Amino acid sequence: MTVGPLAVRADLTLQAGGTTARLTGDGADLVLASTDPIGLWRAVTDLPWPAGATARSGPRAVGELAGLLAAQGLHVDVTGPHGRVAELGAGVSSPLGRALTGSSAVRAGSARTVLATVPRGPRWGLLAGAALVVLLALRRASGGRSR
């Protein structure tokens, strides 16, 4: 038996830790919209999950989810009040996503949108981490040669 790509029709409201999000879509393209995507992520990762629901946590869990979505032909845009924070799944290919989550099926939104979404306190850490990833990617691309 051959199974084709998964198609989803969704209009679902999610609540976790006082944060609300809405998952909508029809077919292979879905949108997860939240007024606080970072708060939603924190709330969801704090929930007790059934054994075997995921083998990973943190950014690697996002990569695992993105790989599963891509395997089923599904694409999810995660949006916040400032626009798209990330996209996951089918049709996404990002070396930065692979470096950060272990899956190239994860792409961050624009730097402006991501920075507007992240609370002010963690921004410097996010910028430092992003700068380190870029530096390592450039070094890898140059074959590790010093200049």
Describe the fold and architecture.
With 147 residues, this protein is an alpha+beta fold. It contains five helices and six strands, in the order βββααββαβαα. The protein has helices spanning 37-46, 59-71, 95-101, 111-117, 123-141, and strands at residues 8-16, 19-27, 29-34, 75-80, 83-89, 106-108. The protein has a six-stranded mixed β-sheet with strand order 1-2-3-4-5-6.
SSE pattern, N- to C-terminal? EEEHHEEHEHH
Q: Structural class, judged by helices and strands?
A: alpha+beta
Report, as a whole number of angstroms, the end-to-end distance.
Answer: 56 Å
Number of strands: 6
Average pLDDT, all residues: 76
Shape: globular
Helix content: 25-40%
Poorly predicted regions are none
C-alpha-based Rg, rounded: 17 Å
Features:
single chain, 147 residues, alpha+beta, 5 helices, 6 strands, 38% helix, globular
Topology:
Layout lengths: L7 E9 L2 E9 L1 E6 L2 H10 L12 H13 L3 E6 L2 E7 L5 H7 L4 E3 L2 H7 L5 H19 L6
Parallel strand pairs: 3-4
Antiparallel strand pairs: 1-2, 2-3, 4-5, 5-6
Helix pairs in contact: 2-3
Can you summarize this structure?
With 147 residues, the protein is α+β, with helices and mostly antiparallel strands.
